[in-house]
TrEMBL record:
Full protein stretch here: 8 to 317 of 454
Keywords: Carbohydrate metabolism, Glycosidase, Hydrolase, Polysaccharide degradation, Signal, Xylan degradation
Domain of life: Bacteria
Family: Belongs to the glycosyl hydrolase 43 family.
Name the UniProt record assigns to this protein: Beta-xylosidase
Signal peptide as annotated in the record: 1-20
């Protein structure tokens, strides 16, 4: 108990600064950032690459928060594979969304029963947990990954996920069940760009959808091509499309063959979270979360964003 209280109250990772030094977490390797703005703070939910990994050795997730985008508080690890009794590996890229006074964390993990990836959902009363398995089984079980949730203005929630395909399903208001069947978003080159040299994947979409709505426009920011990946985006007039490919955002940089983005507006600024291999010993399986402040173009398009280390 003392340890937990100490962690929550006193752990400020970095001294005050005019802006966040990148990577924002320098004590462990982190990946797959999913930012959430809640009650005047930015919470960043991350995966955790274990030291010395030669593949994705990931068994828990971590949470950090900041009120100024410069000083980050370490909230520890409020969720791990052990949270999901039916999962046995691969604590990969998730997303937290609040609703009904609770916080729902959607994550891809390996289903012990099938040996394939599935999506679980955990719930907590606080953004920092503790989180518990909300349903005791996979919410979606089709072997694909990287869940992300949008709650539209009319209250309809959508769960998006996928690699190699791209899916959505309408979540019920309880956020732990859905109506209808998972639907594939057509991966057309008009919607998701053109990939060459990979007959089974003709578009740029690889994984990591991050869907949000801004000024009436729906955005899907995603990891493009592989490997290595860059970050690109598409837009649509509705949550279900049709999607139009809009171009690259973040080029291939930073020494990790994956990248994974999350975007939020906070205190009048827009912030682009991503990961790279910037820490000592860093690379494709020892990644680090970083953030860049940016400004949307006047027409709502997203400018090129480069990685920085300062
Ligand atoms: O971190 C494991 C996987 O790598 C994620 O699920 C993907 O988005 C990629 O970042």
């Amino acid at each position: 108990v003392l340890c937990t209280v100490g962690l929550l109250l006193t752990t400020v990772l970095f001294p005050s600064a005019a802006r966040a030094d990148n990577p924002i977490v320098q004590t462990i390797y982190t990946a797959d950032p999913a930012p959430l703005v809640h009650n005047g703070r930015v919470y960043v939910y991350t995966g955790h690459d274990e030291d010395g990994s030669t593949y994705f050795t990931m068994r828990d997730w971590h949470v950090y928060s900041s009120s100024d985008m410069a000083n980050w508080t370490d909230h520890g690890s409020p969720m791990s594979l052990a949270t999901f009794a039916w999962a046995d590996a691969n604590a990969w890229a998730g997303h937290v969304t609040p609703r009904n006074g609770r916080f729902y964390w959607y994550v891809p993990v390996r289903d012990r029963a099938t040996g394939s990836m599935a999506i679980g959902v955990a719930v907590a009363d606080s953004p920092t947990g503790p989180f518990r398995d909300a349903i005791g089984r996979p919410l979606v079980n089709n072997g694909e990954i990287d869940p992300n949730v949008l709650i539209d203005d009319n209250g309809q929630a959508y769960l998006y996920w996928g690699n190699p395909r791209l899916w959505y399903v309408r979540l019920n208001t309880d956020m732990i069940s859905y109506s209808g069947s998972p639907t594939q978003i057509p991966l057309t080159t008009a919607g998701y760009g053109t990939r060459t040299g990979n007959a089974s994947r003709p578009t740029l979409f690889e994984e990591a959808p991050w869907v949000f709505k801004r000024n009436g426009l729906y955005y899907n920011v995603f990891a493009a091509e592989c490997c290595s990946e860059f970050i690109a985006y598409s837009t649509a007039p509705s949550a279900t499309g049709p999607w139009t490919y809009r171009g690259a955002i973040m080029p291939r940089q930073g020494g990790s063959f994956t990248n994974h983005a999350g975007i939020v507006d906070f205190n009048g600024g827009s912030y682009f979270f991503y990961h790279n291999g910037a820490l000592p010993g860093g690379g494709g399986f020892t990644r680090s979360v970083a953030v860049e402040k940016f400004t949307y173009n006047a027409d709502g398009t997203i400018p090129t964003i480069n990685m920085t280390t300062a």
